[in-house]
Amino acid sequence: MTESFSGANDSVGRASASEPPDDGVWGREPPEENRVPDPSKDEIEGTSATSAEAPATRQRRGPMERYVESVLGRMGGGSGAGKALRKVFPSHFSFLWGEVALYCFVVLLATGTYLTLFYEGSQSEVVYDGSYEPLRGTEMSAAYASTLSISLDVKGGLLIRQMHHWAALVFVGAIALHMARVFFTGAFRKPREINWVVGVLLLILSLAAGFTGYSLPDDLLSGTGLRITHAIILAIPFVGERTTYLLFGGEWPGTDIIGRLYPVHILLIPALIVALLGLHLGLVWRQKHTQFKGPGRTERNVVGEQVWPSFAMKSIGLMFMTAGVITAMGALFHVNAVWLYGPYDTAAATSYSQPDWYIGFLEGSVRILPPWETRIGGFMINHLVFSAILIPGAIFGALLVVPWIERRFTKDDAEHHLLDRPRDAPIRTATGAAAIAFVSVLFLGGSQDVIAGTLNISIGHVTTLLQVGALVAPPVTWYVTYRLCRVLADRPGAERTERGGAVRRDSSGGYHSVADPSTDPDGANGDAESETGTPGRDVAHASRSSETTT
Amino acid sequence: MKLLLALPFGSAAVAGLMSFTAPTPAAQPDQPADALGRKLFTTQCASCHGSDGEGVEDRGPTLVGEGEAAVDFVLRTGRMPMADPEMQATSGPVRYSEEEIEALVAYAGAFGDGPQIPDVDADEGDLAAGGELYRLNCAACHVASGSGAAIGGGREAPSLAASSATEIGESIVVGPGAMPAFDSFTESDINGVAAYVRDLQRAGTTAIDGFGGAGPVAEGLAAWLLGLIPLIAITRWIGSPHEGRDAPIEVEEDTP
Amino acid sequence: MSGGPENVRAARAATIAFAAATVGGIAAAVGYATDNTGDLLGLGLAVALTGIGFGFVAWAKYLDLNEYVQQAREPLAVTAADREVFAEERALTDETLGRRRLLLALSGAALLSLVAGFVGPIGSLGPKPRGERDRTAWRQGSRLVTSEGVPVDAASDGFDQLVTVFPEGAVGRDDSQVVLLRVRPDLLSERTVEQGAVEGWVAYSKICTHAGCSVGLFGIDDRPPDVIRQLVCPCHQSVFDPVDAAKPVGGPATRSLPQLPLGIDADGNLVATDAFDGPVGPLAWDEA
Lengths: 550, 256, 288
Fold this sequence. Notes:
The structure holds three protein chains of three kinds. Chain A is mainly alpha-helical. Chain A has 19 helices and ten strands. Chain A folds into four domains: about 1-45, no CATH class; about 90-410, Cytochrome Bc1 Complex, Chain C; about 420-490; about 505-520 and about 530-550, no CATH class. Helices cover about 55% and strands about 5% of the residues of chain A. In chain A, strands 1-5 form a two-stranded antiparallel sheet. Chain A has a two-stranded antiparallel sheet with strand order 2-3. In chain A, strands 4-8 form a two-stranded parallel sheet. In chain A, helix 8 packs antiparallel against helix 9 and helix 16 (about 425-445) runs antiparallel to helix 18 (about 460-490). Chain A is globular and about 80 Å long. Mean pLDDT of chain A is about 85; it is low at about 1-15, about 45-55, about 495-500 and about 515-550. Chain B is mainly α. Chain B has helices spanning about 1-20, 35-50, 65-75, 100-110, 125-140, 165-175, 185-200, 215-240; strands at about 150, 155, 250. In chain B, strand 1 (about 150) and strand 2 form a beta hairpin. Chain B is elongated. Mean pLDDT of chain B is about 75; it is low at about 10-30 and about 250-255. Classes of the chains: A mainly alpha, B mainly alpha, C alpha+beta. At the A-C interface, helix 8, helix 9, strand 5, helix 11 and helix 13 of A face helix 2 and strand 1 of C.
């Protein structure tokens, strides 16, 4: 029987392959030399997959395998899928923090989509007629009214809204933790500089998403925050006033801003985040994850667990547990009770008016920077330029160029896939700690009135303390951290295990210990194939095959 | 939350000192009200406010023109008697009986021409209008949730969680302590605000699951302590804590 | 294959977790149906999610599989062969496209001008500023009214009073919000009186000159020795002195709150005797 390309596909329902079709509607058979070879029919030369000594596993082709193959067989994805299932990921717990952030984002997308079905992103005036008595008959924007409706009239709406808000608060925190881990272990070094920059951009986008999101209800608290944002943009030299007119459609407050923030929050920013996340995860996939030093770990390998089933199941489990924690918070704790703040009234204000926590560094900068203002000619560089543009700009600017600052100082151009313990890079760790100290003082500054009220100290004293702290805490922290790193690094640590090198198990089942591969980082004693990481070299493949053959 | 921390500072100190300097008088039945009022005033209040209510320098302000509303307010909320003029008067245990309060109010309230005790009926108040007035005039100091806030100079606008309607009305017309007066409020305005504050109290806006009404700061702390810390613990469980303790299993291929 | 030993406890824990999760999901559905959306719905969902997650992790971590394997890294650097390809492609580009310099230049100019053409519609987002910010609704003779539209009687006699007012006919207009105070007349500084205080009444723009929040916090500190009056902005704690033309005395604000000059009309109500002198609130860089 001729094994022709067209005849191989039974589902097309062609005539039996034994007879060449005529020249009618289907055309003629392509000549032999133009046919696309079909791998499953043993037509590719030299592939081991079709060798006669194929392991027994190949014979198990149930409906699932056939379905998957029919999809992959149309994309050339067969070997890629196999490699993907067997890809190794290191398993240190701090590597999971980026995943926590990712799963928070998943929760945000899901809950956010639900909210969009009820929320009205418009400033048109309506008279409230819902179930919340203290506001009945009050004039308010449709945005605020729909938020009230979600919170108090839609069954389950408050839960979803609170999950969404808690997820946002946790999302940025998880990003911060993840970023700190990457920084303090030096994972941003070559070849991961691009991914670091992508990560910082993701951080900025997450802040923007949060800010636009909590401004959507158009309540007194977030409206006050928008007012401050307006003033900050107004203060920009040259383009400030014009930019505010463009953004707000004229003078403050205008009737456009909420309607414009809405598509930014639900479309533009999420699209950018998804795109950058794709790049971020793609780079990690391609470059393989970093790992801590240890026995068996070199710059040329990855030690951990394979995607299927370990890593995938743990990741999926983490996703559910993250969602579970956020759901519990949404169920148990009130957050952003907008009905208390009332609709935004430009002549009203509330004390203890802070933004959501992650904008706290900006709030603190604006509160505790002394009243500095510069006049140049007839023009003014006012306080907000220093506190809300230059200082945050410097912080994020410094964050973006961290990999290049490190390279400038360490003159280290090599690829790094092994991580440092923080103590082994004392200058980097101390600098990072000092930066965190500075930013922490700013965060405290953002809540200086809450601190004053809680501890019964005057606001002025707290502010002065924090102003001093902003100058003193970073160098002190730097010095203390540096010394701590040196002290800890000098002690023999768990890192230097005495347990020796790798344990090898051959295909007959016996264990042998061999020389410590960490003294043999190039794997020169191993097979030449160890450079390529093809599936055939993968451990599990061999182990599974050995399992079935024994 | 804020209240829990402020209480040790405020009440204990004031109450402690009060017990030394302001002994509770024995009950005096059948005494004519103005005689009782004069007697209480002379023994309890004159040392700081002067025997004729004109005030004593560095001790207590003048009571002339304060009116009955002011006297009633500070007595009923336990703000007076106050031991230390350096501290802000905070609410605390009421030191006088109803009869004594009425006597003092009649006596001291007669100094000059001040506002009478307003007649406040929260049930008559327009909730929505009261809410608008509250947010426009009161929230700046007392916070949208009514939980109170620090307002600078070491002073605070207290929580409204336990304020009665009459106290609210008295505060509005008198402007006690650090608070300004709101003479422009009509009777129906005051009723509305009282109704709105009562609604805030009922809603339990300062309850622990609302994080004491302190807003985004408390919520941010909660996100870290109640959200991220458990999540870190979960990742600690899922991942491996140590790297490098054991050597990995590596299998030799028997085919090239 | 390095599978771990069957862990009985983990198996039991995972079983319980999945069972609890199932119950949780059902409880959530019941909660929704019975309007118990506070606790039953939310906690049911939380239990369901956490239970599933716990079950999967316990399963992967302890049962059937306990992996610890290694995989080689592929080199990431560009190889010599790659460089050759790039060099060839570069040479090809230079020899073909690169020779047509005029076309290159013109196509670049065309693309740029396309961008310029598209910039226009962005300008439609908002009008050009035409000095609207310099004017509020206050005019000479505007009567002060509360947010309910009630005029302010100059004879209203409480001291240390605070009222939020607007010009009559423009209640609620953002740029015209004014904070009106009454203090004992002898407390006001000369400058304040010169700028338009009358009988202890003094009015300032309520828009903070720092970042635009409403300055509604009027605190009177009457602890000895001196009584201190402060206008505090609740956003960033800028402090203004209400008895001295609202000049900034603390916090990040650098400019006084503009003062609205007051007078009393024939009916005894407060009126403005002039508009504000310049823009109110936070300023743009050329409004110094």
